[in-house]
């Protein structure tokens, strides 16, 4: 169908994903990726760069808030919580990687968790919904990377 665009097809595939499509293998690998990312993120909360972005982000406030990992008394609007936690994950460069070079979980998990915390108590998402959101984020990142000319042949360029 000539009027369909790559973007339209991409959006259709992503929109059509649901928790029933998560295989046992995908669920197990996702849990391992999430656990690894949380561990690396907690370690990263002690870095200087993480402290700097956390201090910078304190100027922002909102009725919605999400946790800053490793700090029980420190919450930020979801956007800034995702930013600080994402910096924590990547600050020591131990987060997961795939080829071409990207760090999928460090970009996706902090955003998914921050957003899930911002839902009202009556609309909290399930663990399976969180796994689906995580996998959709990984899928989007992987497909965008696949389409990117900038990502081609990174090892040869450096």
Automatic annotation (TrEMBL):
Record-level GO BP terms: defense response
Signal peptide extent: none
UniProt-recorded Gene Ontology molecular function terms: aconitate decarboxylase activity
All copies of domain MmgE/PrpD N-terminal, residue ranges: 9-151
InterPro entries: MmgE/PrpD_sf, MmgE/PrpD_sf_1, MmgE_PrpD, MmgE_PrpD_N
Pfam family, one: MmgE_PrpD_N
A GO cellular component entry from the record: mitochondrion
Family per record: Belongs to the PrpD family.
PANTHER family in the record: 2-METHYLCITRATE DEHYDRATASE-RELATED (PTHR16943), CIS-ACONITATE DECARBOXYLASE (PTHR16943:SF11)
Protein's recorded name: IRG1 decarboxylase
The organism of origin for this protein: Irena cyanogastra
């Amino acid at each position: 169908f000539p009027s369909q665009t790559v973007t339209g097809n991409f959006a259709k595939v992503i929109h059509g994903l649901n928790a029933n499509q998560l295989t046992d293998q995908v669920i197990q690998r996702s849990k391992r990726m999430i656990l690894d990312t949380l561990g690396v993120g907690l370690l990263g909360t002690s870095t200087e760069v993480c402290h700097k972005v956390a201090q910078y982000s304190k100027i922002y406030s909102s009725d919605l808030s999400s946790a800053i990992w490793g700090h029980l008394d420190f919450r930020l609007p979801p956007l800034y919580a995702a930013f600080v936690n994402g910096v924590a994950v990547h600050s020591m460069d131990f987060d997961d990687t795939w080829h071409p070079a990207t760090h999928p979980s460090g970009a996706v998990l902090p955003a998914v968790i921050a957003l899930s915390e911002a839902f009202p108590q009556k609309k909290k998402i399930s663990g399976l919904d969180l796994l689906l959101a995580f996998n959709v984020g990984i899928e989007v990142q992987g497909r965008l990377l696949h389409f990117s000319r900038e990502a081609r042949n990174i090892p040869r360029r450096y």
